[in-house]
Structures are given as structure tokens and as C-alpha cells.
Design a protein that fits this description.
This protein is an all-alpha fold and 855 residues long. Among the domains are: 126 residues, no CATH class; 101 residues, Serine Threonine Protein Phosphatase 5, Tetratricopeptide repeat, CATH 1.25.40. It has 47 helices and no strands. The longest helix is centred in the N-terminal third of the chain and has 14 residues.
Length: 855
């Protein structure tokens, strides 16, 4: 038997034709022949002979078909098959006879008559439509039992009756399974056809693949495609289908891979595949490659569509390449495609993200004048841009223009405006916008949350709670963000009772607290000094089955360190490491800082070593904290070694690190080294801040060099660096000690004029200095000034004045002041009784404790 393959003439119209075959009910189709005669009657054989030999076949067939059916009661499938075979070269006669036999007798689908007829009809293109309809009916009838094994039956039939195998039959068989939605059977059918080395139309294969993709059988389609690539039986339409399958799953990089593979294999690709590839590449995103493909398309004589240009512009905008995006826009316009709204809106966003809000607004005015008309998204982009740039007047104007143009704003537009007003600290405008939106019914939970969060940050908790009540009255259900914002606001105020009450209310009728809720409460209690309460909430977090984040662990360990429970924090860290916790640099920094504050520098160094051994790289904060501890413990050599190690690792000293070293040298009164570091600080492009100046001023004050200290103070003012309370306290104390009472008094007046409120240390310095210079009455005036400001003098201030009176020999006033001190609830200390018992005070000594005021 020879297998001949003929190419069918496919036309979309063919597949829209109705079936010419008579329709059978399921019961008729399912009836089986239960018995047939083992031999055909001689009369039937005679009639068959007549059919074969008579030239006018149609006439003779009509004569036979008109005979009473009783004469053919013993007609069998074998007989029908035999008659059909006599017309193997006349498909029309074979079909006419088969239809007559099928109408008169029940025949089982997939028996020899059906199979033989399919092979015969495949001999003429005029009957391809009939083949298709027959196979569609056979496959779609769920009771027929037809499956992928029909491939083997068709081939076996062709071998037995020496019929030509035409691949058209198998194309339509596969097509029938696909149309019936029997995709697994279709895949198996395809496999059997391929195994039998029967060619299939690429169109038929593509139809199978496209239906697999449409029905989300993506992996099956990919497996099928892989086999097609190996055999080389695919075309650009196949590539298009598999690329779209990947893009359906948002696997754009995979779609790009299929495109590159097909292109490299020499498959002739069409414009549709190129457009799909550009879309996929833009989503990766790889804007440069997308633009390269765009140029290839133009080089092949294809004109890219508007959507293709739009994709490339969008890809460049996502990569923040404004220059390239504008270039593609210009090419688009040059090719006769007007700039559409999507491109214009993308460019507007690009302009304002680059900081050029003016160009964004200019482009908006251009499209509003020349078209296309801005839509809701365009207004959203520009309103957001104006809010980000703080141009709230323009943002509000655009919002009003949007409404006038007939575009109804939604909650997102209002949210942009409210956030913009709040960030610009325009509270009244934000609240007005909020209430207008609520009256218009344009509001959501997110809007309420934004307002509550901002009010909480500003410390206006009463108004924030009113917003929550209004939210509930509107029928909105607060989410976990709503409660977290309010709890955070209370924690920032240190109002842990209200925070805890709100948390309890949340547990009772609100959403379930999350890790962030607990983290806020833990941090709030640590900051307030409530270490045990913080630990209670941490344990409650664990009992709720929540998993702490790194942020939570950082809060816990940092809080323990600040509570001087650094050893406990270190032990917890070791336990967490055993449980698989991966700490970051911040965790180690907290523990190192805790040990430094507890003067346990060796423990801090040990943690630093553990940190390095675990593969965590120390940062500038790590080194700065350790160097500060080493300098305070007078271990200058190791501090300098760490500084050099820090530089060797490529870390640059920041202003804080320089400040630590300068302060260390100043405390040692090594002002020459301190000056050298200041010069180095300038050399690396940094400028000294208030902390650095204060260290230098304190260093020169300790050397009684107040001229240089005052020169630094004047330079601070000249350079616009803020002088703080520490600056004035150091200068006043130094001036008083060198006897420059008038300059000290003038500086105190300047401090008050700058709006800096004195604290107990400043008052102590002033009182002590005045008393040492015999200005006891003026010192008493300072005390009265304190009392007028509701500041209570401490024992050191009383000791200075009592000592001053005793130096003058005014013991009566000294003892009166002692009685007054007790009446005001100030407890005398050992220095007080030493002064009273000895009834004298050294003129060269100050009763102010060095531990209280150490500059």
C-alpha cells in the first residue's frame, strides 16, 4: 500500500457550512447490529453487479433504492463496504449510496463503511467539507465511543482495503477533537498521527495550540511546541500563539526567549509576531531592545502601529529615560501617527518625576488645546505631580477643571489632594477638602486613614479620634491600618494608657491586630521606660501565632539595650540565631551601643567580632559607636586602629564619626589633634555641625582659652549654624570662671533672645559663677527668675548661694536659705551639711558636682 499525502484546500468559509449528513438521535446511533447473515443473498450480489456495471450509475442506484426495504433485510456492513469499494474512484456515487444505506439501516459509527467512505471522499477536494462534518459528528457524539484510537482504525482500514491514506482525513479528525473541546484526546490524537509519520497541516496544529492556550492548558501547549521545534513543523503563527500563551501568564521574559529562538532558527516572522515581541520586551522591560525591534520592523517595510509605538514610549518611561521616550514620540509623529493620550500622559509623568513640572503642565495645555481630550487618568497624573511638587494651588485648579469638563472625580483624586495639603501643612485646606468629599459621597477607608495618620503624627489625637467616629458613622469599617495609625499617634505622645485602651477596643470589635500593631506598642512602651509592658506585648505577639519581623526584633533588642539589659538582649540574639533568625547590621549595632553605654567596652568588642565572623559587614554606625566607647575609656590606640580598618574597608567617616574623634581629643585637651581633624573634615567636603563646634568650644574652655571659644561661637553664627543650649551653657560657665561676668551676662541675654529656654544646668552655672564673684544677691535674683518660670532650684543651686553667704560672713541668711530649701522639699546633701558645719566655703571651689555638670 502506498501512502499519498495531498494538501487540502482550507478556507474559513468551509468551516462555517452546515453538515449535509442526516442527523441521528443518540439512540439511533447507539443501536448495534446484533446479527447479520454470514452470506449475502445471491439476489443482493446480482444487484451489486448491476450497480457496478451499469454506466448510468445514478439511474440504476435510484432504481435499486426504490425497491421495498424488505428485499434488503439481510444487508450487512460488509456488503455496504463492498459496494462502497466498487466506487472508490467515484466519491459522489459512494456518498450517495452511503447516505441511502445509512438512512435505511442503523450502522455503527467507526465501522468499516464509515472509514472506507472517509478515505474515498478524501480523493476529491469537493468533499472535504463532508469529511469535516462527518468527523465532527462522530467525535462530538459522546455515546459514539470515538477516541484517539480512530487514527489506528483509519490506517488499518486503508491497509486492509488498499486505499490511499490522505492526511486531510487526519487533519479533520484532529480538528474535530479540538472543536468538541476534547483537548486531552486531541493531544493524544496528534501524538498518534505524528508517530505514524502522517503529515499535518500547520494551520491545524496552530488551531490546536490556540485552543489549548485559550483554555489555560499552557503547559500542554508548551510541550506541544517543543516537539514542533524539534521536527521543524511550525511557522510564525505557531510562534505567535506560544508567545501569547506566555504573555497570558505574564511571563514576558519567556515570550521574548521564544521570539529570539524562532528568529535564530530562520523562521520567517510576520508583523504580528514582531508586535507581540515588542510588547513582551517592553514589559520585561528592555526598552532599548524593543526600539531595536521597532527599527527592524521598519527596515522590513512594515509600519509599526500606534499601539507598538505607545509600548516603546511606555517602556522608556518606566526606565526613566525621558530623552529616548521623546525620540520615539517624534518618530511616531513623523510616521503620520498623532501623539495619543497614553503617550502624552506618560510624558507628563516623566516630566514631573524629573522635577520639571512646568513642562508637564505645558504638554497638558497643548493636548487640551489640540487634542486628544484629557481623561481621568491624565488628570490623576498631573494632580499627583502638582501635589508632589507642593504646588497645591495648581493641583486644586486641575481638580476643579476636571469636574467642569464632566469627569467625576473619585476617592483617589481626593486622596492625592488631601495628602498634598497635609504634606504642605495646610491643615485647614485638607480638612475642607475632606469634608467636601464626604458630603459628595466620594470617600473610602484609605482617605480616612491618611487623615488619621497625619493628625496622629501632628499630635492632634482628639481630632484623629473624631475622624474615626465619623468613619464609623458613615458605615465604613476601620481596618488594621486605621487602628495602627491611632495607636502610633498615642505612642508618639507617650500616652501608653490610651494606646493600650485603643488596642483593647481593637481586639474586642476591630480587625485582628497584626505584627505592626504589636511592634508599635512594644516600641512605645520601651520609649516610655515600660520594659515589662513591652515584653508582655512581645510575648502576646508570639502567643497569637504571629511571626515577628526583623523590624520587631530590632525594636525588642534595641529596647532592652536602652533599658541597660544589654546582656539579656545578647542572649536573646544567640537564641534567635539558633532558630534561624538572620540579623542585620542594625541588630548588632543596638547591642554594641548598649554595651558602650554600660561602659562594657570589652563586651562591645566581642559582639563586633561575632558580627564580622557571621558575615555581617559593620557600617559607619558600628565603627562610630565602638570608637566613641574606646575614646571614652581612653583606649585611643585601638580607636585609631578601628578608624584605619574602617577606611581600609572603603567606609568613609561621616560627620558623626569625625565628631566622636574630635570630642575625644577635646576631652583629652589635645586641641592640636582636634584642629587637624577639623581641617581634614573640611578637606573631604564636610562641614562641622553644632556638635563638633560644641566639642571644640568645650575643649578651649577647659584650657581657659575663652577668646578662641568665643571666636568659634562667632564663626558658628556667621556660618548660620544653630547654637543650642549646650553652646551657651559652656560659654557662660567658661566666662564666669575667668571672671568675665559682664560678657557672661550678655551671652545669657542673647540666649534668651534667641528663644532658647534655660534649664537647671544653666541656672546652676549662673548661680555658682555669681556667688564665686561675690554677687550673691544677683544669684538670688536668678533663683526668683527660676521660680517665676515654675522651675524648682535644686540642691546644688542652694549650696552655691549658702556657700556664698558664708563667704561673706552672713551666716543668718545662709541658715535661712537652708530652712527655705527644706520647706520647698529640696533635700540637703552631704555638701550642704559640710558647708553648714564648717560655716565656711573655699573661694576657689564650687559646690556644683562634676557629675552633674561635666563639660
Amino acid at each position: 500500500m502506498t501512502i499519498k499525502r495531498r494538501r487540502p484546500r482550507f478556507s474559513p468559509a468551509v468551516f462555517r457550512c452546515r453538515s449535509l449528513l442526516p442527523h441521528h438521535s443518540k439512540s439511533q446511533t447507539f443501536n448495534l447490529y446484533t446479527s447479520y447473515s454470514s452470506q449475502v443473498s445471491s439476489q443482493n450480489e446480482k444487484q451489486a453487479s448491476i450497480i457496478t456495471k451499469t454506466p448510468d450509475t445514478k439511474t440504476k442506484l435510484s432504481h435499486i433504492f426504490s425497491q421495498p426495504i424488505s428485499r434488503y433485510e439481510l444487508l450487512s456492513p460488509a456488503h455496504v463496504t463492498k459496494v462502497l469499494l466498487t466506487h472508490r474512484n467515484d466519491p459522489g456515487s459512494a456518498l450517495h449510496y452511503f447516505k441511502w444505506a445509512e438512512k435505511k439501516f442503523n450502522m455503527v459509527i467507526s465501522t468499516d463503511p464509515y472509514l472506507v467512505l472517509l478515505h474515498i471522499l478524501a480523493g476529491s477536494e469537493d468533499y472535504y467539507r463532508v469529511i469535516r462534518n462527518m468527523l465532527n459528528r462522530m467525535v462530538s457524539d459522546c455515546l459514539s465511543g470515538i477516541g484517539p484510537n480512530l487514527v489506528d482504525q483509519l490506517i488499518d482500514c486503508a491497509k486492509r482495503f488498499d486505499l490511499e491514506v490522505n492526511y486531510v482525513v487526519f487533519n479533520y479528525l484532529l480538528n474535530g477533537f479540538v472543536r468538541a473541546g476534547r483537548f486531552i484526546d486531541a493531544i493524544e490524537c496528534f501524538g498518534r498521527i505524528v508517530e505514524c509519520e502522517i503529515s499535518l497541516s500547520v494551520w491545524c496544529i496552530n488551531f490546536l495550540m490556540s485552543r489549548l492556550v485559550r483554555n489555560n492548558l499552557i503547559e500542554e501547549a508548551k510541550d506541544l511546541y517543543a516537539g514542533l521545534v524539534v521536527r521543524g513543523t511550525y511557522d510564525c503563527a505557531t510562534v505567535d500563539v506560544i508567545m501569547r500563551a506566555c504573555m497570558k501568564e505574564e511571563r514576558f521574559d519567556e515570550a521574548e526567549k521564544y521570539f529570539r529562538q524562532a528568529k535564530g532558527s530562520g523562521v520567517k516572522l510576520d508583523v504580528s509576531v514582531y508586535c507581540g515581541a515588542i510588547y513582551a520586551v517592553c514589559k520585561v522591560p528592555d526598552a532599548d531592545y524593543a526600539y531595536e525591534l521597532l527599527k527592524e520592523m521598519k527596515g522590513l517595510g512594515w509600519s509599526p502601529a500606534e499601539g507598538t509605538y505607545t509600548c516603546v514610549v511606555g517602556a522608556y518611561m518606566n526606565q526613566k529615560n525621558m530623552v529616548a521616550a521623546l525620540k520615539v514620540r517624534d518618530e511616531m509623529v513623523a510616521d503620520g501617527i498623532p501623539m495619543n493620550l497614553i503617550v502624552a500622559t506618560s510624558l507628563m509623568k516623566g516630566y514631573y518625576l524629573e522635577g520639571d513640572l512646568g513642562k508637564a503642565l505645558g504638554l497638558f495645555e497643548e493636548i487640551e488645546r489640540d487634542g486628544p481630550a484629557p481623561d481621568k487618568y491624565t488628570y490623576s497624573v498631573l494632580i499627583q505631580g502638582c501635589c508632589r511638587h507642593g504646588n497645591m494651588h495648581k493641583a486644586k485648579e486641575l481638580y476643579n477643571r476636571m469636574k467642569l469638563s464632566g469627569i467625576e472625580p473619585d476617592a483617589y483624586h481626593v486622596n492625592y489632594l488631601i495628602r498634598g495639603f497635609l504634606e504642605a501643612e495646610l491643615w485647614e485646606e485638607a480638612l475642607v477638602q475632606f469634608h467636601d468629599a464626604v458630603e459628595c459621597g466620594v470617600y473610602n477607608v484609605f482617605m480616612y486613614n491618611v487623615l488619621m495618620s497625619s493628625l496622629g503624627k501632628a499630635g492632634n489625637m482628639s481630632e484623629a479620634c473624631n475622624i474615626l467616629d465619623d468613619m464609623l458613622s458613615k458605615g465604613l469599617v476601620p481596618n488594621v491600618v486605621s487602628y495602627n495609625s491611632l495607636i502610633l499617634g498615642y505612642c508618639r505622645q507617650g500616652n501608653m494608657d490610651s494606646a493600650s485602651n485603643l488596642f483593647a477596643d481593637m481586639q474586642e470589635k476591630g480587625p485582628k491586630p497584626n505584627v505592626i500593631t504589636y511592634s508599635i506598642l512594644i516600641d512605645g512602651h520601651f520609649r516610655k521606660g515600660g520594659t515589662e509592658d513591652a515584653m508582655k506585648y512581645f510575648n502576646q505577639l508570639l502567643s497569637q501565632g504571629l511571626t515577628p519581623t526583623n523590624y520587631t526584633y530590632n525594636i525588642l533588642l534595641n529596647g532592652l539595650c536602652k533599658a541597660r539589659r544589654t546582656s539579656e538582649a545578647r542572649d536573646r540574639l544567640k537564641k534567635l540565631l539558633e532558630d534561624g533568625f538572620i540579623p542585620d547590621c542594625m541588630v548588632y549595632n543596638s547591642i554594641i551601643y548598649g554595651f558602650v553605654k554600660e561602659n562594657a567596652i570589652n563586651s562591645a568588642l566581642a559582639v563586633y567580632t561575632e558580627m564580622c565572623e557571621s558575615g555581617i559587614c559593620p557600617n559607619v554606625i558600628t565603627y562610630t559607636t565602638l570608637i566613641d566607647g574606646l575614646l571614652k575609656s581612653n583606649n585611643y590606640d585601638l580607636a585609631i586602629k578601628l578608624k584605619n580598618d574602617m577606611r581600609n574597608k572603603g567606609l568613609k567617616l561621616d560627620i558623626t564619626a569625625y565628631g566622636v574623634f574630635i570630642d575625644g581629643y577635646c576631652k583629652r585637651r589635645d586641641m592640636e589633634s582636634a584642629r587637624e581633624l577639623c581641617d581634614e573634615l573640611y578637606a573631604v567636603g564636610l562641614s562641622p555641625n553644632t556638635v563638633v563646634y560644641n566639642s571644640m568650644i568645650s575643649g578651649f574652655k577647659s584650657l581657659s582659652d575663652m577668646d578662641t571659644a568665643l571666636m568659634l561661637y562667632n564663626k558658628m553664627i556667621q556660618d548660620g549654624i544653630q547654637c543650642d543650649l549646650a553652646t551657651y551653657t559652656t560659654l557662660i560657665d567658661g566666662l564666669l570662671k575667668v571672671g568675665k561676668l559682664l560678657e557672661a551676662t550678655n551671652l545669657y541675654t542673647r540666649m534668651l533672645a534667641d528663644g532658647i529656654k534655660p534649664d537647671v544646668i544653666v541656672y546652676s552655672v549662673l548661680v555658682s559663677g555669681l556667688c564665686n564673684k561675690g554677687q550673691v544677691e544677683n544669684a538670688r535674683k536668678i533663683v526668683k527668675e527660676m521660680e517665676s518660670k515654675n522651675a524648682v532650684p535644686n540642691v546644688l543651686i542652694y549650696n552655691s548661694i549658702i556657700a556664698g553667704y558664708f563667704r561673706e560672713g552672713n551666716f543668718v541668711e545662709g541658715f535661712k536659705l537652708h530652712d527655705e530649701m527644706i520647706e520647698k522639699g529640696v533635700t540637703p546633701d552631704d555638701t550642704t551639711y559640710d558647708i553648714l558645719v564648717s560655716r565656711k566655703a573655699s573661694g576657689n571651689s564650687s559646690p556644683i558636682s562634676a557629675t552633674f555638670f561635666n563639660l
